[in-house]
Amino acid sequence: MPYEELADLLWAGREGGSLNALKALLHRARSALDQLGEGSGRSLILSREGGCQWNPEAPLSLDAEDFARLLAAGNPESRLEALALYRGDFLPSLSGSHWADARRAALREQYLESLPEVLTALAESGRWQAAAELTETACTLEPCREDLCRFRMEALLRTGRGPEAVQTYELFHGRLLSRLGVLPSQALRDLHRRAVGDRDPRALSPATLLDALLEPPCPGSLICDFDAFRTICHSAARMAGRDGRPVHIALLTAAGPEESAPPARHSLDRAMDHLEEILRKGLRRGDAAARCGADQFVLLLPQADYDASRAVCARLVRNFTRRYPHSPLRVTFFVQPLPPGGTV
Fold first, then answer.
1. Is 331 left (phi over 0), alpha (psi -120 to 50) or beta?
2. Which of 26, 254, 274, 277 is the most buried if burial means most Cβ atoms within 10 Å?
3. pLDDT by residue (tens digit) across 119-161?
4. Long-range contacts of 62-66 (CB under 8 A, 24+ apart)
């Protein structure tokens, strides 16, 4: 390649693309290649009259080309080998370059399209260790894909790595709630409960029962995850069906002013943390609350009628506004009775 053409490719007409600058860059490239072995730089990058070239006789292996070749082979082992080669985006430092962006998108699409088929084949053949290794990279690249999370949790459980399966779910749950404002599916939550059970299969004894059940000292109301909150609601509805005492639930939503752009993610997360602290201190110890979306909390208010429940929510909103007067969000609420349940 002529030096002028190479300089234009590297600097695209910007200042600093002189012949001397190019030669200095080639010298640094050869010095870096010398780490492969003495003289490697000059044997790989050859000087020619008015230009330079890569040594066509030098043995060369490109992972992107190996990836495409192995996928095209079509057999399960070759496809697995191909997916194991994919460790992330193609040439991420060249983001914005048209040719690199097109190649990057094509490789990523091939990888994602092949994953479910290969993982299903590994599961059907009981090769859970290979599935665990493959999903480690896959879940890093696609952190909000529930099917990949499910494959990874199942593979970890099948290979005796229950604590890692629990951690995988907890990280996925947090990302899904924070980024998309939704909860994992019931099937994935069931798999999580199975992982928790596998992590500590020992039966409780009478001596350890209370230690396992009693809540440690904690001021304020009960803040829990949504799955636990739903179970608490089931119990409260059953109690209401038996003794007739009112139980109400409330939905608190934090949103920006009407007709304004949605709040930035960091602003929303900070406001929700502040609102959680208001709920923890402002509700009774017998009340419960859980975050059920990126911008919502749900409250359980036992032994409070409709008017009292609305008054509680209005007080919480006032406390939030007074404590954080410069928050870009406003909090609204909706109260409704929890129908009695558990009747036969």
1. beta
2. 254
3. 999 999 999 999 999 999 999 989 999 999 999 999 999 999 9
4. 64/90, 64/103, 64/107
Candidates 116, 20, 103; CA nearest to 63 is 103
Dihedral angle computed from the Cα positions of residues 71, 72, 73 and 75, in that order, rounded to the nearest 10 degrees: 50
Helix (H) or strand (E) holding 134: helix 128-141
Instruction: Quote the radius of gyration of the chain (alpha carbons, Å).
Output: 29
Task: Report the alpha-carbon distance of residue 138 to residue 152 in Å, rounded.
Answer: 9
Residue closest to 138 by CA, chosen among 124, 155, 126, 125: 155
The 10s digit of each residue's pLDDT in 244-262 is 888 999 999 998 776 566 7
What one-character DSSP code corresponds to residue 58? S
pTM, rounded to two decimals: 0.56
SS3 344: coil
CA 49 to centroid of chain Cα atoms: 53
Q: How many helices (H) and strands (E) does the chain have?
A: 14, 7
**Cα atoms in the Cβ-side hemisphere of radius 13 Å centred on 151:** 31
Pair of tokens at residue 241: 């069906």
CA-based angle 250:251:256, to the nearest 5?
145
